[in-house]
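Notebook entry, structure prediction.
Reason for the run: the old model in the group folder had no record of what sequence produced it. Starting over properly, with the input documented here first.
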Amino acid sequence: MTQMTSTVRWMGRVSALGAEDRTRLFDRATSSDTAIRETTAQLIAQVQERGDAALVEMAQRFDGVSLEAIEIPRARWDEALTSLAPDLRQAMQRSATNIASVHAAFVPEAKETSPEPGIVVRRRPDPLARVGVYAPGGRAAYPSSVLMGAIPARVAGVREVILCSPPDRTGLPAAVVLAAAALANVDRVFAVGGAGAIAAMAYGTNTIPRVDRIVGPGNAYVAEAKLQVSGAVAIDSPAGPSELLVIAGDTADPVTVAREVMAQAEHDPLAAVVVVTVGETAATQIAAAIDDAVVGQPREQIIRDALSGRGAVLSAASIDEAIAFSDAFAPEHLLVATTDAAVVATRCRNAGTIFVGAYSSVAFGDYMTGANHVLPTGGLARSYSGLSVLDFIRWTTYQTVDRQAAARLAPDVTTFAMSEGLPAHAAAAAQWENPR
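New structure, fully documented this time:
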């Protein structure tokens, strides 16, 4: 594979990728970083041991602020919402409406089945009692993440939704994050961020209540913290730095593809952005368009770091080879920019969400289509799904056996139980073989 001196780190054929290059592209899980793993474990332990005091110290250490209070009064959120520029409030309200509409369409219903006469098995979806939403801060504020986490929880029927987001130098989360909390009808807001916030929601402190599930994206430390507390609390998925894979046909507009690359690369220096073209001509054109597009970007250095570290423009000999690469890569976002995008999309299995056709910009999904932008990263789209109302319910299964069915079941259950050396099980079933 040819080594490039351009912004994008690699360019060449998919089939020519060597072992080292494949490792750089495919091993994206932050949990493989020993330093991140150890630091995160220390932060979690501090919160477990010292609760709120540890959170206050972390705010001073990482955010450079002396917190007067961890919890933010509701009046401050309402003030933030009232102070929003009208056009931004309109956009956020439109996003919130679409999120509620889309997620309401997928609320599950109770169902029952009868495998034999006299046996009924039912499953009932029960909303979780309390959910914690994490909204990132630091390089940028993400009110969209508040809406994406809190609104589906409300649609699912969760009784209490809390929000954690890092404070800025004022001691408060960003004003737009507070406004989003008010818009999404969150119950409580806390000015804590990073691994400490995840630990606080997982184990509880004097101020922050323990939750049943933690959702929301974050940096490498947040993703690692979610993994480490997952034995104590459910999580959505270990969502880390943003990812995009574009499958581009030979008619794809290089400038359009380059803009999509910029949009995802500007999230984080660890963002992974890969373009796989069908044919080498398109690869050369798109690589050149990316080099042109990055110059003068407001977040240019972040983009350059991302593209030089985890960026690639590769060519595939066929659409089949491009799809196979995508399924192995399992990206958070997959954009299919081919003439037959709808057909290609049906053949792609492993992606957090698929954007079908060049008009379907990933930015639309990030903010406005109503689909969720909290998605699995690090290749975990092979087994995890994007955030939905299903993340905010648990299923209760209940079963009924009538007297006649009990008599019919008893002999086989008795035989089964004795084969496993469980005579008490056998006796519990056998009593109904000849019911009084």
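Summary: Residues 34-237 form a domain with the Rossmann fold fold (CATH 3.40.50.1980).
The old model has been moved to the deprecated folder.
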